[in-house]
Amino acid sequence: MSSSFTHRCLKMLLAGTALAGSVQVSTAAPTRHKHHASTHRTASPATTPVAATAAPVAMTAPRPTPAPVMARSQPEEIAVTGRSSRTRQPGGGLMRVETAPKAVQTITHDFIAKLAPSVNLQQVIAMLPSANVTQADPFGLYTGQTNIRGFDGTEVGWLLDGAPLNDIGGGQFYANEVLESENLDNVSVQPGSVNIDTPVTSASAGMTSMTMSNPSHHAGGIMDVSFGSFDTFRQFIRLNSGDIGNSGVRAMFAFSHTKGNTWRGPGQAEKYHYDFKLVKDFRNGSHTGLTVAYNDQTNDFYLAPNLSQWRTTGYSTNYATDYVGPTSAGANYYKLHVNPFENVVAVLPTHLVITPKLTLEDSLYFWHGIGNGTGASVINASTYMGNQAVKLDLGGAKSVLALAPSNQEQFRTGNTIALHYKPDNHHDLTLGWWYEYANLYQYSPYGIVNQATGEANNIWGTTNTIQTTSGQPFRARDFLSLTQVNTIFIGDTMKYFNDRLNILVGFKEAMVTRRMYNYTPGTQYNRNLHTPEPLPQIGILWNFNKHHQIYVSGSTNFKAPSNTSLVDYYGTSGVQTQKGGASKPEYTIQEELGYRYNGELIVGSISFFNYNLTNRQQTLNYYDGNAGASYSQTVNAGGQTTRGVDIQLSTRAWHHLRPYATFEYLHSTIDNNIRVGTDLLPTAGKIAVRAPSKQAKLGLDYDLGGFWISGQIMYVGKQYASFMNDSSIPQYVTNQVGIGYRFKNAGFMKSPQIQLNMTNLTGAKFRSGVYGFTTNLNATKGVNGTMIAAGNQPTYYLNPPFSAMVTLSTGF
């Protein structure tokens, strides 16, 4: 736990080195190949080689030469500079030259190193054209929200070094729990497509893959310490072993501790994070290794306001600072709305050269998470558990204020194995299998609260819980879901005409079996779901010369139904609030046409896309006053059509400047009317929620080697918060700036640096994202003439105010 002996020792170690500065560098040596929903935490290539480079993989030219004419990047100039690396990446690291026959958008460490070091992955990708990112806080301690081309983050596969990170139940991804920015080498978004060997079941909108930085070939490390707004304080250290003799082994270990107050209302967030990576290289080109990321975090929640609250209390909206007693008002006390969570992901990727023509890729992974999101409510001694009346042991009281956590514990283990066979210079054949078994246990106990102080005896909800008079644990929900995935895939990458023509064809059959066991009285004990999905894909790319290429791609993707869609729910009044049942998976057919230009100065791309989605799964968040907690319900929103264009334009270094510009036009519409009760809402043709029609972003990097400045500005258009488009948030503009100076080496300090990062420089106040949407804000006449009552009010994210963070860093 966060109070462990290990944490205390590391905090003392860092306190002694704080003034020395900071961490993480891109190595000079080249490499060789919550905000949890308080409802239920229920949430590039799949086998990234351990020593894979961040640069695009060169395509093999047929013999005899001439040389291939594929687009390729210019050699990079790399210099170790403490936290950051000075390279020649286009757009200051916001764009990389790509060669895949599909849309790929990549951000490199060149850009990441100039952000505040505490940022999470969502904040890193915010400048990409296809990403619509809403921040919950300025420093990455809370997960916000990411939408990719109008699809939410649960419809995107998220991977770290080939290991899937989505919640196996609902597909949620928590960006604040994964990887520290100093250890993030690069992140690539593939909007609309996944690779045939990608191990994901929640990827109807594509995938995002991140790579942990490899350990350096030289012993040493980096340190940084940061101070920021809202009493935020952070320390980080990374240690590199360097090459260990002639063993071919090198490793790195990193630790960080971050703590800060919430930017509105009472509360704080604190996390301890550990990253570890080991690489083993063999003389024949084989390599293996181990990647581990562990996170231990406890956050006080932010209250997401509805429009009425926003208009009334604005940026003061949050949970109560003071406890007012064991009443329904006392349930609003901020110490009863906490999110503790621990998770670890480990992956062991291996690249084995069997013969010059035959190689094997294997990626074994494990993921474990445990924690909750808490709420509170007043419960009576006489109540219901499921549909069964029960008496609670409340120490003689008729009612008490109780903690209402939504607990989960999740285990995921799996393996992806693939054989690659190159019979000649034109083909690269792939045959593989992905298997995963996941165990997800979710339950909602009621915890004992000190009625005088309002503090819970145990925020984890694992001890000091309320029992029935018969000694049975009292739980609002209690179920186990077991998920088994088998996916077989086959593909071929073909290259002709001296690599001018590249063709990728692939097919995989994904088979997902989910078994659910509900232990709540009155519910159906067992429901099972088996989902077989055929998933073909094709990509064709033509290189006119080293500067110009055009590609066309077609792919199919899917998202398995949420495990909670199989569950029956009851409130504490004994009334059923959800009836579970088998639902259909989302299925997407996507086509894309793109053009790329890779010039000596200018690099650009444009991609036109079209999606046809069936069985759109949408999660409606609602608050159950009886249970004192938020819950969510998955509904089938039918079909959706999404069309648009993404544009990226950047330059290489020109007079120390590297500008970047991007634009997206998006037209995402609901294809059908949506059933509500016995009638249909007239939603056909309405704009999808969280799908702004326009986004525009500008970035500028100016780097003299010593002094540097990096700034970004983002425009996001109007977004709807209801299926009926009768609720929305207006367009907005936000910005961020980073300024730094690199000093010369001094003693043991290599390239020490001071850095200032600022966000929302104007201090603008606005709603920046839709937290929970609704079917219809206003009463609406249905297709069949029935007056459909107004739904719940949507809730919103608020844009964090002006914030600043100063970081001192150094290599050693």
Automatic annotation (TrEMBL):
Primary location: membrane
Gene3D superfamilies recorded: TonB-dependent receptor, beta-barrel domain (2.40.170.20), TonB-dependent receptor, plug domain (2.170.130.10)
InterPro entries linked to this entry: Beta-barrel_TonB, Beta-barrel_TonB_sf, Plug_dom, Plug_dom_sf, TonB-dep_rcpt-like
Region (Disordered): 28-49, 64-94
Record's subcellular location: Cell outer membrane
Domain TonB-dependent receptor plug: 97-193
Keywords of this entry: Cell outer membrane, Ion transport, Iron, Iron transport, Membrane, Receptor, Signal, TonB box, Transmembrane, Transmembrane beta strand, Transport
Signal peptide boundaries: 1-20
TonB-dependent receptor-like beta-barrel domain span: 282-761
Membrane topology designation: Multi-pass membrane protein
Superkingdom classification of source: Bacteria
The protein's name in its UniProt record: TonB-dependent receptor
